[in-house]
């Protein structure tokens, strides 16, 4: 496949140990130490007070990262098409649904039921921002971040419209944790465009590589330890490269037979 390019103009990263891109980029680049105390779960500011209180962890961190990336890029959230990627959505709610249906179906919470769908975060985002732009919610197991990035890059190339990518995962619970393991909270977001602007963080030249020879890039062990066990952790090598601000190559498998080869240039040339 012919190499293509994208410009990154907005970046967001949130976990209890990396609470925001301004802090995270210094930690990932080795210029600062991780905090001693974990940050509390962010508040989904876009939602009305009642919805904020009811929002599950998956929605809260996804919306926080999405809004932070838009603010970093100085973009109006409602103007962007978006891609939301998660391994299996909110597995805590899925576990609750399965156990309640098995024990007493009449006790299923309507609120939790509507939060159990995979596009819950994307739906809340469109409602909270008042956006009528297209959105995509996808899952690709352990390759969900890479698949979400590929989908975003393909939409960017085909539509010539900027795209917001949001990737997030929370902790697995119950029997599902044995087949879809994930720990902690981690959300990441990028605003991608085809044209360079004064908010540009980096240029990414990318191509889809076929064959099993593409090995996944690894972030520094000390950085991986900050998000250890989260199924969204494959996003970290790319964000580490953005934090370092150096020319870099990052490989992200999207399946057992294909992957994204990314060449990152902080000069935005």
Number of helices: 10
Name given to the CATH homologous superfamily: Thiolase/Chalcone synthase
Given as residue ranges, the uncertain stretches (5+ residues, pLDDT < 50) are: none
Average pLDDT level: 91
Shape assignment: globular
- Succession of helices and strands: EEHHHEHHHEHEHEEHHEE
Structural class: alpha+beta
Q: How far apart, in Å, are the first and last alpha carbons?
A: 22 Å
Share in β-strands: 15-25%
Describe this protein with a few key phrases.
single chain; 269 residues; alpha+beta; Peroxisomal Thiolase, Chain A, domain 1; nine-stranded mixed sheet; 10 helices
What does this structure look like?
Helix 1 (21-28) crosses helix 10 and helix 3 crosses helix 6 (120-129). The protein has a single domain (8-199), classed as Peroxisomal Thiolase, Chain A, domain 1, CATH 3.40.47. The mean pLDDT is 91. It has 269 residues and is α+β, with helices and mostly antiparallel strands. A hairpin with a 4-residue loop joins strand 8 and strand 9 (258-265). The chain has helices at 21-28, 49-54, 57-73, 91-103, 110-115, 120-129, 144-159, 176-179, 221-224, 236-244; strands at residues 4-15, 18-19, 81-85, 135-138, 163-169, 186-193, 202-210, 248-253, 258-265. The longest helix is centred in the first third of the chain and has 17 residues, at 57-73. Strands 1, 2, 3, 4, 5, 6, 7, 8 and 9 form a 9-stranded mixed beta sheet that branches. The chain is built from 10 helices and 9 strands.
């Amino acid at each position: 496949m012919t190499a293509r390019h994208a410009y990154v103009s907005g970046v967001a990263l949130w976990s209890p140990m990396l609470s925001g891109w301004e802090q995270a980029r210094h930690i990932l680049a080795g210029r600062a130490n991780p905090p001693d105390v974990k940050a509390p779960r962010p508040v989904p500011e876009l939602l009305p007070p009642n919805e904020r209180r009811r929002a599950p962890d998956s929605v809260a961190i996804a919306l926080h990262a999405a809004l932070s990336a838009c603010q970093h890029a100085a973009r109006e959230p409602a103007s962007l098409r978006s891609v939301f990627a998660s391994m299996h959505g909110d597995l805590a709610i899925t576990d609750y649904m399965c156990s309640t249906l098995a024990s007493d179906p009449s006790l299923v919470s309507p609120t939790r039921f509507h939060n159990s769908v995979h596009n819950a975060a994307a739906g809340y985002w469109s409602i909270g921002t008042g956006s009528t732009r297209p959105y995509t919610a996808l899952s690709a197991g352990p390759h969900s971040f890479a698949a979400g990035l590929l989908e975003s890059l393909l939409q960017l190339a085909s539509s010539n419209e900027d795209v917001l990518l949001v990737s997030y995962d929370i902790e697995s619970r119950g029997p599902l944790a044995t087949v879809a393991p994930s720990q902690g909270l981690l959300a990441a977001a990028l605003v991608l465009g085809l044209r360079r602007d004064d908010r540009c963080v980096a240029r990414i030249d990318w191509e889809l590589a076929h064959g099993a020879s593409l090995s996944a890039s690894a972030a520094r062990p000390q950085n991986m330890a900050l998000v250890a066990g989260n199924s969204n952790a494959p996003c970290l090598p790319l964000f580490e490269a953005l934090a370092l601000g150096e020319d870099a190559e990052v490989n992200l498998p999207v399946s057992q037979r294909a992957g994204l080869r990314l060449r990152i240039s902080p000069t935005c040339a």
